Amino acid sequence: MIHFFSQLIVIAAVNGFVMFGVVEYFPEFGLNITVPSVLLGYFLIWFVFWFFFVILKKMIDIVAFPFKFFTMGLSTVVVNIWVFYLFAHVVNTYLPLYYPGVLIQLGSVWQTFLLSIVLGVVMSVLHFIVKKII
Predict the structure, then answer these.
(1) In the chain, where are the structural domains located?
(2) Which of 15, 85, 125, 133 has CA 20 to 30 A from 114's CA?
């Protein structure tokens, strides 16, 4: 059980560092995150991001499997974009109730498309490495 929680914290931190790097060093992807306290704000966003992309996206992928089969995997990109917008909506709507000042802004659909592809590849590689190490 301790192994699960340590892996959860490490993966959430990896997600956060990747998102922080994208926000700070690659503004052309259109992702903008505003938090009052960088450490606590990013940690909360990391956890919500982990929930959306590990738990919720897996459930959506199970339901959308027939579409993936018929579109040869292209519907995965649409699901990723939809999950990004849902993630931004939930963070902007519910997280400020408990932690005021948090705001996530996504760029255009094309920027979010590129962001989903880049984050998907980078995070898949990093999750694979983390799971091998831990």
Answers:
(1) 2-133
(2) 133
DSSP state of 41: H
Cα separation of 89 and 34, whole Å?
14
The length of the chain in residues reads 134
Predicted TM-score (pTM) of this structure: 0.77
Measured at the CA of 86, the angle between CA 80 and CA 88, to 5 degrees, comes to: 105
pLDDT recorded at residue 1: 67
Neighbour tally for 63: CB within 10 Å? 9
Q: In a 10 Å sphere around its CB, with 0-12 CB exposed, 13-18 middle and 19+ buried, how is residue 130 labelled?
A: middle
Parts of the chain with a pLDDT under 70? 1
pLDDT of residue 61: 77
